[in-house]
Amino acid sequence: MKRSNWFLGIDLGTGSCKSIVVDEKAKVLGFASVEYPGLQAQDRWQEQDPKELLKAAVFSARGAVTASEVRPEKCAGLSIGGALHSVLALDGHGDPLTGVITWADGRAVEQSKALKGLPVAHRLYQETGCPVHGMYPLYKVLWLRDKRPDVFGKAWRYVSAKEYVFAGLTGEYLVDYSLAAGSGLLHTRTLRWNSLCLEMAGIREDQLSTPCSPFTVHRGIRPEVAGAIGLREDVPVVAGSSDAANSNLGAGAVHPWQATCMVGTSGAFRVISPGPILDEKARSWCYAVDQGHWLVGGAINNGGVALSWLRDCLNQAASDLLPDQRLSFEDVLALAGGAKAGAGGVICLPLFAGERSPNYNLNARALFFGMTLEHGVKHLARALLEGIAFRFRTLKDVLIDVGVDVRQILASGGFTKSPLWLQVMADALDRELMIPAWGETSALGAAFWPLLSARGETTLEKAGDLVKLENSCRPDRESVEIYNRMYPLFERLYESLEQRFDEIAELQAELGRQNGEMQGHRDRHSRGNGSPEKHGNTGFPPSRE
C-alpha cells in the first residue's frame, strides 16, 4: 500500500467514464475505464440512462483506486469532469424525468433554427458566448417545452450529467462555471444565469444549480459511495470543471498562446484566455472556466465517431462472408496508411453527425467527392482522416481571425495513439504537434483540481508545471503543399452544398418516418404487445437539495 497522499479524477465522457489516481507530483498511479451500455454510433438520437452514468462513475473510480494500491485514508481530494452541453430534467424528488440529452442529440434543431438570423441571435451570442445551435441545453429545454409539455410542467430542476453524478456522490447540487457556460444559459461576463435566456426558456433561476468556482470544495461523500469506491467518507470533493477545460489542463495548455487539438468521439481546438473573446461572425464559442479564465475555440461533431462509421460499414459488409473477422480502428488506420497524402484526389466532408463550429448546422451531411473507378477503400479511409484534419484547420483559422496567437499546439485524445493520424493532422495544420506523456488528458485534468486545491493554489496556470511532454510530430513539407492545394477546394465544396443540406435532411427525415411506420407495423406483428424494458436502480440515487 502506498502511503503518500493521492488524488482521484473522474472523467464523465460521452461514451465512457474514465478515472485516474495521481500522487502529489501528478504521477499516474492507476487508471480505469467503464463504457456505458447500449451506446452505438447510430444511436446518437437516444438519451443516456443517468443511473448507468452514475454506476459507471462509481465502478471506474473503484477500478482506478484498486489498480493504484493506495490507502483509502490518504485520498486528499477528488473531482469530477463532465462532458459539455448535456441536460436532464428531474422531478421534485430528484428522480429523472428524462434521460441525459447529450450534445449529439439533434432534436432541438428547429428551436435553434427559428432564432438564426434574428437580432436576438447576435445578442444571445454576445451575452453567453454560445452561438445559436441545437446542441445547447437552452434549446433542448425549449424542445421539451414544445414537444414534451408533460415533462416540462413537472420539472423541478434541470441539471447536466455531471451535476446528477455529483449529487449522487455527495447529495448536493452545484455546477461549475464551465458546465454552466456550456448550457447557453450563463452570462459569460457576469457569471450569473442570463435573464434573457431564462425568459426565453420559460424557466426560473431556482430550477438551476448555483454556478460556482472550480475550486469550490464540498466536504464528504455518501457512506455507501465511499464504501463502493474505497474512500473515506470525509474526502474533499472539489467542483472541478468540464471535460473540455480539464483536457487543456491535462495537456498543459494553460496559457493563451497554447492550443489543444483534441480528437476523441468528437473533437475540439481551444485555448484558455485571460478574458472573453467573441467573434463578430459567431463562429467560435467562449465559456468561462473561473473568474479570470475563459475557454475559447471551436468543436466538431465528427472525430472518432466518423472512423467508427467507416469501420462499422466495412464490418457489416463482410459479416456474412467472414463472420469471425472484425476490423478494428487500427485496421482502418492501416488501410488509410496504404494511400498517399491527398487520398488520390478524394475529398471527404466528414459531417456524419452534423456540424458544430464554425457554421453550426446540424443538418450538414457527409460527402466523398472525386471518386473514380481507380479509387478503393484505402482512399476513403485516408480522405476521412484528412477531412477531419481540414475541419481542425478551419477551427485554427477562426482563432487566428479573432486575434488568438497560437504558438504551440498540444495533441490529446485517442488519435495520439496513431502516428499516421498525428502526421496527417500536423501536415494539414502545418504546425508541430506536442504530445503529452499521458494521453487521457481530461481525466488527468480532473485530478489536477483537488491536487492544486490541496497545495493552496488558486490559479490554473500552475497545472502546466505538472505536465510532461513525451514526443512531437513535425509537418512533412511535401504533404503540407498537397494539403494547401486541397484545402481551398474543401472549403468551396462545403459552400456549394450549404443550401442543399436542409433539403437532404428534410428528405431523410421524411423517408425515416415512412420506414419507421413500416418497421413499427412489422414489430407489432412479430412481438405482440410487449412492454419496454425498464432500467434498474443503481443504488445511488441523488437526493433533493
From the structure above, extract its key features.
alpha/beta, seven-stranded mixed β-sheet, 17 helices, 19 strands, globular
Describe the structure.
The structure is a single chain. The longest helix is centred in the last third of the chain and has 27 residues, at 501-527. The two termini are 37 Å apart. The strands form five sheets. The protein has a seven-stranded mixed beta sheet, sandwiched between helices. A six-stranded mixed beta sheet has the order 3-2-1-4-10-9, sandwiched between helices. Strands 5-6 form a two-stranded antiparallel ribbon. The protein contains 17 helices and 19 strands. With 545 residues, the chain is α/β, with parallel strands linked by helices. α4 runs parallel beside α8 and α10 crosses α15 (441-454). The chain is globular.
Question: What's a concise summary of this model?
Answer:
It contains 17 helices and 19 strands. With 545 residues, it is of the alpha/beta class.
Main β-sheet: number of strands, strand sense, barrel status? 7 strands, mixed
The parts where pLDDT drops under 50 for at least 5 residues are: 521-545
* Mean pLDDT across residues: 91
* Contiguous helical run count: 17
Helix/strand structural class = alpha/beta
